[in-house]
Amino acid sequence: MKSLQDKLEHTLDLLRSIKDAHPPGEAALAWTGGKDSTALLALWREAAPQHTLAINIDTGCKFPEVLAFRDRMASEWGVRLYIARPLPEDCPAQIAADKIACCRAMKVAPLRRALAELGVRALLTGVRADENPERAHMREREEREGYVQYNPLLDWTEMDVWAFTVARGLPYCELYDRGYRSLGCVPCTLPSGAGQGERGGRDSEKEARMAELHALGYF
Questions:
Q1: Closest by CA position to 141, among listed 119, 160, 122
Q2: Residue 107 to residue 103: CA distance in whole angstroms
Q3: Which residues have C-beta within 8 Å of that of residue 10, sequence separation ≥ 6?
Q4: What is the dihedral of CA 206, 212, 216, 219, to 10 degrees?
Q5: In the chain, which residues have pLDDT < 50?
Q6: DSSP letters along 88-102, please?
Q7: How far is C-alpha 168 from the geometric centre of its chain's CA atoms?
Q8: pTM here?
Q9: How far apart are CA 59 and CA 83, in angstroms?
Q10: Neighbour-count burial for 166-185, b at 16+ CB within 10 Å, e otherwise
Q11: Less Cβ crowding at N or C end of the chain, within 10 Å?
């Protein structure tokens, strides 16, 4: 089993290779405001300080604490933040009634528009293999439609992320101190209950259909 130090060194090597392959502005980090993508953002700033572009998908249903954390950290860390939002005409009449249709309209479509508008060719995500059975099948580098998706933390665990966060003294959203272990949209996110996994507070239907969402372009 790899140590966290081994994983950290591998991740930094991958990030440096992405930096070398893409000029500033052509690579962006998908930053949710959660612990994983925030840890990745810290590493990206270390490996590629000139690459400051981050894309945040604001569905209009995010926790205010997450948005406040995002805005504060973007300012403090000098992040070039692009906020991708769904078009009013694309929003479903009833949020989260159809999980796939809702995520496609509120997350996937805004992301695709943002990538096209910005000219992004490489998207970095904080996705981890141990979060969901479908993500266990993902690869560190994935060819997507019109861009390449990199998942530099794929072999990290939840405890790896927290150990790194604590060791580096990184900030994190206050919701984690209130029992949340994974942060999504308000209608589909609850604190994790006793005995539940990391994403136990996330909508179970959506979690079960992650393969469909991934095929659509959801990261």
A1: 122
A2: 5
A3: 2, 155
A4: 60
A5: none
A6: GGGS-SSTTSSHHHH
A7: 20
A8: 0.95
A9: 10
A10: eeeebebbebbeeebbbbbb
A11: N
Give the Å distances, CA to CA, from 34 to 23, 39, 120, 160, 194.
Answer: 26, 9, 22, 14, 21
The region, left, alpha or beta by phi > 0 then psi within -120 to 50, assigned to residue 60 is: left
Which residue, chain included where needed, has tokens 């070398």? Answer: 20
143 torsion bin: left (phi>0), alpha (psi -120 to 50), beta (else)? beta
- Structure tokens belonging to residue 156: 């990290």
Nearest to 181, CA basis, from 171, 172, 191: 191
Alpha helices (runs of H) in the chain, residue ranges in sequence order = 4-21, 35-47, 64-77, 99-103, 109-118, 158-168, 204-208, 210-216
Amino acid at 210: M
Helix (H, G, I), strand (E, B) or coil at 149: strand
What's the confidence (pLDDT) of residue 194?
Answer: 77
Q: Please tell me the predicted confidence (pLDDT) of residue 62.
A: 96
Q: Which two tokens stand for residue 159?
A: 């405890």
